[in-house]
Design brief:
The chain is an alpha/beta fold. The chain is 45% helix and 17% strand. The chain has ten helices and eight strands. The protein has an eight-stranded parallel sheet with strand order 7-6-5-4-3-2-1-8. The mean pLDDT is 96. Bound molecules: pyridoxal-5'-phosphate (PLP).
Length: 225
Amino acid sequence: MSNVAESYRRHLELVAAAAAACGRSGRVRLVAVSKTFPEPLLREAYAAGARELGESRMQELVPKAAALPPDIAWHLIGHLQANKVRPAVKLAAWIHSVDSVELLQRIDRIAGEEGRHPQVLLEVNVLGEASKFGLTPEQALAAGEAFAGCSHLRVAGLMTMAPYEAPEAVLRQCFGGLRRLRDAMEARWGVSLPELSMGMSGDFGIAIEEGATIVRIGTAIFGGR
Ligand SMILES: *Cc1c(COP(=O)(O)O)cnc(C)c1O
């Protein structure tokens, strides 16, 4: 078994064990983040059972999706430019990085034109870091009206990225903050936002403890980038 296959399988077990350890009943979805890695490594992950792969850029997702088997659910996890929405809607099963109401409305319109129904997540910059994309918590809280107005999309939940190598208290503030924001949005708008996409190679254990339903793991599976 190659390293990638072995690492993928080990992380499936680690993710399941972390969920079980905090008494979570539902499955936590593992997205293998394959951005920057070459196709042969993606095929190794696929052979080990990976069917959900994450990419950051459409320029990379388009050729990989064309080259790899059709039963892969592609997760777009990076910032999406307005002029790339159509190919994203055609190719991605999940779009994690919806960082403005305008983008949400554009994805909804194009999804209707293309007859596609991607799952979308609103990206939130929970701690207000200057370097990051994402809605502020206040903007996200106010966005309920916009997604009630979507006719083709379902907003499935929220996504965030924690600061890199932050201390545990900061990670919990970020991930717990996303969960509490989700709870507040559900209460305010009477909607269901079951998905919380949070946690990467270095922090997925804490993210699961704080309620992650999707973790996005790249380097721990594929190796150094
Ligand atoms: C690259 C990336 C990941 C994966 O990060 P690793 O540290 O390699 O696990 C997860 N989420 C997003 C949004 C990313 O850009």
